[in-house]
């Protein structure tokens, strides 16, 4: 598989049975469905249309995909969904930061119990993979840092006192010097710093246990900041790009927290869908960063989106949120080497598309 290969060019192995996409009516899941159908595969979707994510039934789900409406926490629903499947792309999840502990049980239930039920039913059915898990860069917590004096260091969570004072950069925990942020590789220690992140780490561990016990091939894709058409709008579970887009659509300036210099890797949803198709085809176990490889600041992203929509300039507020990290961006080299994946979508073109794309109610 050469780098940059798109899903419709894949020479699929001869397998029988549909590919199951859990959460296939959601933002990323529906694009995975589209990419699989474009590659000539039979697709089955299971989705519960969670009220926090769907205010109305979406009209974009391709009717060629078989749809089972139901909850992955229900063993009967899952048993029907997995019958005869050749592969699974597990996208179903409750997303967002999970900073309000009032939601903690819902996050654990939807993300971890749901994954456990799915894996249990698959194990009982003799499923051998491939199984692709939608994981997230949030499992890393803060990204990778280097101190000029002490080398690689892991800064602790930033204090409220520092954040209130506008000291947003995490200092070296040993000498207090400024740190240099670096791309985080897949073997970096896991350090979840909010509820959602903790559930993603648990999902990875559950899947690893499933792989050890059954011999199934399991691949975890750690998505970085995904944006694009069909993102949910006006919801606490939306990503920052969607929140900025919703503000601009209402004629308001995007409110950029901290000083806007926090760095992320923004990757288009079509690239993420392509990574899923390549991972299913490659049938290669392990974890992979799914990222563009080009970090940008949140302020830069807000500026690009505002320019694309010719809206008001972003407002840098200095506000902060508990559980947020300063910098996290990735090295995508392993995904390129093993899966043949490289992000194809241009950032500026993607922002121009996203500025006017239909978002999900």
Task: Describe the protein.
Strands 3-2-1-4-5-9-14 form a seven-stranded parallel sheet, sandwiched between helices. A three-stranded antiparallel sheet has the order 7-6-8, with no helix packed on it. Helix 2 crosses helix 3 and helix 6 (240-249) packs parallel to helix 8 (298-309). It has ten helices and 16 strands. Helices cover 33% and strands 16% of the residues.
SSE layout:
Layout: E1 19-22, H1 27-38, E2 43-47, E3 66-69, H2 75-82, E4 87-90, H3 104-125, E5 131-136, E6 144-147, E7 151-153, H4 160-164, E8 180-182, H5 195-214, E9 218-223, E10 225-227, H6 240-249, E11 255-256, E12 263-264, E13 266-268, H7 269-282, E14 286-290, E15 296-297, H8 298-309, E16 315-316, H9 333-339, H10 347-356
Parallel strand pairs: 1-2, 1-4, 2-3, 4-5, 5-9, 9-14, 10-13, 11-16
Antiparallel strand pairs: 6-7, 6-8, 12-15
For the structure shown, list the relevant keywords.
361 residues, alpha/beta, 33% helix, 16% strand, disordered N terminus
Describe the structure in brief:
The strands form five sheets. Strands 3-2-1-4-5-9-14 form a seven-stranded parallel β-sheet, sandwiched between helices. The protein has ten helices and 16 strands.
Strand order of the largest sheet: 3-2-1-4-5-9-14
Beta-strand residue percentage: 15-25%
Largest sheet: 7 strands, parallel
The Rg value, from CA coordinates, equals 20 Å
Average residue pLDDT: 91
The residue ranges in which pLDDT falls below 50 over 5 or more consecutive positions are 1-5
Helical content band: 25-40%
* Tally of alpha and pi helices: 10
Overall geometric form: globular
Q: How many beta-strand elements?
A: 16
Helix/strand order: EHEEHEHEEEHEHEEHEEEHEEHEHH
Distance from first to last alpha carbon: 38 Å
Name the structural class.
alpha/beta
